[in-house]
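Fold this complex.
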Amino acid sequence: TAVAGGGVRGGAAGRAAAMDLFGDLRRMNKRQLYYQVLNFAMIVSSALMIWKGLIVITGSESPIVVVLSGSMEPAFHRGDLLFLTNFHDDPIRAGEIVVFKVEGRDIPIVHRVIKIHEKENGDIKFLTKGDNNEVDDRGLYKEGQNWLEKKDVVGRARGFLPYVGMVTIIMNDYPKFKYALLAVMGAYVLLKRES
Amino acid sequence: LRKNVEDFTGPRERSDLGFVTFDITADILKEKCIFDWNVKQLFLYLSAEYSTKNNALNQVVLWDKIILRGDNPRLFLKDMKSKYFFFDDGNGLKGNRNVTLTLSWNVVPNAGILPLVTGSGHVSVPFPDTYETTKSY
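Structure:
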């Protein structure tokens, strides 16, 4: 397309391409604009569907999480991405890495299970600890709570990718970056033309 | 992988506290070259598994160690004390003949799946029928 070709050439040619772009914008009539918006909406819906699909397949309300603290170093560092599953029949066993939420807090914590006591009917209570922490997590649990239960578990860590989650952390710490990124993505999708 | 253990329980008001000393001899490289190009570290842990009247299954991690890629893969640990308190949820350790210690490890890759592997040997540790009040730990 004219826009893509202009980007490659350079300097003066680049400015001419920008003029082309604005020309295009002015010439786009309403129908084309609606078409572009629909395209954009479809992309967003597909992304949401994929995310919901993952939630269903893995059984976890949050199948992909970003590690936020260094409490599991040297295995996981801040910014690593974890893939979770939360199958109902999967037993919780000592040594597993689980992601759990303390009642009343939003932030999930990724630590290792170090003690379990399970009754015959399957009721289980367990204790966790971060590999890099000196003490177990009792200090992190709710006031008076000494054990975690199955309902507190968001998922079990099954796989991981290093560094990839850094993007989410940067977007959280620097909201301007997030808006800039969204603006660029939005502009690209709205203005991109199928030739 | 070999473990030798000596153990006793101490009286506590509500739950039994177990004390275990152990030796571990391990040669990790023997286990089909576990440190391949994608392995960043191994998280080794010794866990005790047993059943009691209160709970059908109990597992308590007594000790753990992180082995990074490049560390010496042979372990000769003698007379190790458990790193974490071996509390039972109740009084199920006294006289419990069937406490099994197993060495397991979590393979942490540079990227990819996180498998948990249980070692093939395990050692049974019977706890005596009485509480020990004189020994210091």
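Residues 65 and 82 of chain A are 5 Å apart (CA to CA).
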